[in-house]
Amino acid sequence: MRLSGITPSGHPQLGNYLGAIKQWADEGAENDLYFIADLHAMTTTHNPGKLRARTSETLAVLVAAGIPPERVFVQSDLARELGALTWVLECTCSYGEAARMIQFKEKAGGQAGVRLSLLTYPVLMAADILLQGAAEVPVGEDQRQHVELARALARRFNQTYGEVFTVPEAVLPPAGARVRDLADPSRKMSKSAQNAAGVVFLMDEPDLMRRKIRRAVTDAHTKPAYAPEDRPGVSNLLEILAACTGVSPVDAAAEYATYGALKEAVAEAVVGTLRPVRERAVELLADQAELDRIRKAGSARAAERGEHRVASALRLIGAG
């Protein structure tokens, strides 16, 4: 089975949907699991109310996108299991292994006030993976090192105390659209971007989506062409259109003589693609009892799936 997660560090956006969530809904297997990694959003300063709201919003979006509710859960609902397993794994991990993580080095930057959780969250990530018995973890290159740590800890525990954990493999996620920021196509569209002008959020009103796309940065040329290296702005629009319609970016470029016509086509394609997801998410967020039911049921299944591993690990390490 595969395990994938999304951190609610901001509102879900078009890049999240076209690059990952849509693939999860369309291609996920019966035993795959998807979770909202709200505990990972606490490694830096955060607003508790916003985190709670974004967690609910992200859960609603995943279900609205078509992911079966039984495959979705919220990480913090498994705090008891994850807390125990994280401690077991921290007792299996060395300080040097944690401190070597590239993301810790980059984000900490030698700051004295950095949170300890920034150092230890890769061990929590290992607990996420090992608790569910995930065999494959789709990750980008920036997270591959964390999966390697999970592999090392699983092997070490199994060899030292007894076989409990599946040793996971990092795999490339299914190819999704590479969505760039509309205002600055040199960077990826991000839910935590400081400037939201170039980010299409899934819960934006349709007219706001259209305005953002119409204002997208292009270049000094007049006719659209697909050239990602030389013309990233217009190429980004073409990739978005291709992801929404199934037409290749090159073929899409040939259909439009002006940037204005292309932007209108992209706007309508995005609004049309996101409309059913947005409308269903709005319904779920308005029905808190139903969303709570989905959340409770999904988390109960995930906890049941992993509780025997926690119990076995505690017993073998001498704590149970």
Q: How many H/I helical runs?
A: 12
What is the chain-wise order of helices and strands?
EHEHEHHHHEHEHHHHH
Note the gap between the termini: 28 Å
CATH class bucket of the largest domain: Alpha Beta
Strand order of the largest sheet: 1-2-3
Broad shape: globular
Structural class call reads: mainly alpha
Q: Would you tell me the overall average pLDDT?
A: 93
The tally of structural domains comes to 2
What is the CATH architecture annotation of the largest domain?
A: 3-Layer(aba) Sandwich
Q: What share of residues is helical?
A: 55-70%
Report the sheet with the most strands, covering strand number, pairing sense and barrel closure: 3 strands, parallel
Q: What Rg do the Cα atoms give? A: 21 Å
CATH topology of the largest domain: Rossmann fold
Record the SSE blueprint.
Elements (H helix, E strand, L loop, with lengths): L2 E4 L7 H14 L5 E4 L11 H17 L7 E3 L4 H12 L4 H5 L2 H7 L7 H16 L4 E3 L2 H20 L8 E3 L34 H9 L17 H14 L3 H6 L4 H28 L1 H30 L3
Parallel strand pairs: 1-2, 2-3, 4-5
Helix pairs in contact: 2-11, 3-6, 3-12, 6-7, 8-11, 9-11
Keyword list:
320 residues; mainly alpha; Rossmann fold; Tyrosyl-Transfer RNA Synthetase; 2 domains; three-stranded parallel beta sheet; two-stranded parallel ribbon; 12 helices; 5 strands; globular
